[in-house]
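Reproducibility note. Readers wishing to regenerate the assembly model reported in the main text can use the exact inputs given here. Chain order matters: entities are listed in the order in which they were concatenated for prediction.
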Amino acid sequence: MKIKAKLKGNIIHVKAMAKHEMSTYNQAEKRSGNKEDANFITHITASVNEKTVFEASTSQFLSKNPIFKFKFKGAGKGDVLTMTWVDRKGNTKTSTSKIK
Amino acid sequence: MERRQFISLSALVTTAAMFPAQLSAVDFRETKPTSWTAHSVDEAIKEMYGDVTLINKGITIGTPDIASNGANIPVSITSDISAKSIALFQDANPEAAVAVFTVPDGGSIDYNIKIKMGKSGTITAVAEGTDGNFYSGTRTLEVALGGCDG
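Running the prediction on these inputs yields the following structure tokens for the assembly.
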């Protein structure tokens, strides 16, 4: 996952891109004949210092390699932002980035 | 108060104080599975939040007027409402629910995501306010090239 976290004033602006095909049921059915092959990120969270700052439950209708932009307060330069996603098949990925 | 009672009480308070941090992790796909398979926006909202009255104000959804590529539509959601969660739906795809954001304590609603839409349609956002009311906002856009492979 690519994460950019930047402090502007007292607000941290985050832009993150998860590398994921985000296939829908229809796409999976066309490709393999089985719509249960669909796979997409179902839940994504971001935290700093063990505090959740972003959380989303997601569906197959996010774009391929989905981008998430959000803002939060209460952290400073050098703090580490940790983002984790889980997909429909149970795969999970955690990435970190320092706030600049 | 007897000591024994006090200890059990303080144990209770500690547990209660510890839980909010954990409870902040809400996977709406697990707690509201039926909402994600609902085909209409109204049905999905009902499955997500119950039979609620929506107040149509306070939420701004930003998209291009005409999205050239339905596979990659930038959508921004902003609101000053103090909310627990905000959900995004659309009426162009087989199912209506797109995403639900859990707003952290003291967090503001200012999100940008990219979504897929199979054809032109309307995006609806519903915010669950901390005051117990439900707010909504809509945005209709044209999609030049559908992005869901049918």
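We highlight two features of this model. Residues 14-23 of chain B have pLDDT under 50 and may be disordered. The two ends of chain B are 68 Å apart (CA to CA).
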